[in-house]
Design a protein that fits this description.
about 110 residues; mainly alpha
Length: about 110
């Protein structure tokens, strides 16, 4: 696999989700991401795949400060979206969708 920072590497053309996730995982395995360009790529992938980033870094204490920031960003984003949905007029379809979302969360919590 080409390294994410390689001059003929993956960011010279459009990639699919699978390849981008491989690159994100490779970044997460590094002790430090050094350099402006690699950090821009890394940040872009973190923003695009926040849940995957949290999974890739859950056992790596070296990423703790960045992981904490990303976790807070993700929580804030989710709370804002939920607040936005709940603050507007809710119809029967919305209720069904919200109940499904709640059931999915309960399923994940009880794994």
């Amino acid at each position: 696999m080409l390294q994410p920072w390689h001059p003929h590497g993956p960011f010279t053309h459009q990639l699919g989700t699978e390849k981008e996730l491989e690159i994100l995982e490779a970044f997460c395995k590094l002790p430090n991401v050094v350099g402006w360009c690699p950090n821009v790529w890394y940040d872009r992938l973190i923003r695009k795949y926040p849940f995957e980033y949290l999974r890739f870094t859950q056992h790596k204490p070296i990423n703790s400060p960045r992981r904490s920031i990303e976790l807070d960003n993700l929580k804030q984003n989710l709370f804002q979206q939920i607040e936005s949905v709940l603050s507007r007029r809710i119809d029967a379809e919305d209720i069904s969708t919200l109940q499904s979302l709640h059931q999915l969360l309960q399923t994940i919590l009880h794994k």
